[in-house]
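Methods: holo model generation. Sequences were used as deposited, without trimming of termini or removal of tags, and paired with ligand SMILES retrieved from the corresponding compound records. Each pair was processed once, and we did not select among multiple samples. The sequence and zinc ion SMILES for this entry were:
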Amino acid sequence: MKVHKIALPTPFQIGDVNVYLLRDGDRLTLVDTGTSSREGERVLERKLAEVGVRVEDLQQIVLTHYHADHAGLLERLVARSGATVYAHPLTHDLIMPTATSLAKRVAFFDHVYLGMGMVEETRRQSIVQQVSSYQDDMGRAGVDVVLQEGDRLPGHEQWRVIYTPGHSQDHLSLFDDTNGVMLLGDHLLQNIASNAFIEPAAREGEERPKTLMIYRQALRKIYDLEWQVGYPGHFEEIRNYRELIEKRFRSQEKRARMVVEQVKAGKRTGLEVCEALFPKAMNYLPLVMSETLGHLDWMTAEGRIARETTEDGVWMFS
Ligand SMILES: [Zn+2]
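and the model returned the structure below.
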């Protein structure tokens, strides 16, 4: 069994994305694809060639999650290789959105941003458009085979699927317990805390998932497993994972305390709390709003703060 790390450029602030080539005998599987760009495709071609592999040789592609830096090049790679695509059951609809699902996504984020206290409609519309248009960059190709918790990756049976939602609801990690290797996607990164993005419920009629709480549970899951090295979707490999996860937990707990303090000090809306916590980062509104709402959800669930909804649809915390 061999795992080759391939770093590919992205236009995003995070920098390169790492995709991984798994090779067992003549079985070749690529984990994640990089973004949909000619440059990324050329770098991938070149780096595969260094280990004697052509894009056309790829037999399987596994997606850790639907984000554009991980799944963007899927359409091109499938067209060239005919590879079978494996991912979580939710991934297909996320990378193949319909006009109806996109409209629902816009309505969802409009509801959330209003809830957070962004009452001016024009301001809300532009940010909602920005958040929901994220799916426009997806490489359109369907998922052929779904992978769920406990499944073995076909052709690479030592890799077990671990469901690790939170950063996205369709997030999978792969764990080779014979060698103590974890393929982490964006579940845990060395240099930055992974964001538990606010997302609509995956299924009609369900409540909005409390993504930060879900993320913390899934971090606990990989904390409890014994592994040696983790290969993440960005930055360098992770060896000190328990220390790193404890650090993430501590900073989430600290931020949660700050959220409660801000509410106690009289900040009533999510937007007010967000501005108090991230005065310099309001340009990254979708990120910091996710952070803020995630912590507000958590503290509300713990009974540390309470939430009421005004007639206009704004959530008021106390
Ligand atoms: Zn991601």
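Residues 65, 67, 70, 167, 186 surround zinc ion (CB under 6 Å).
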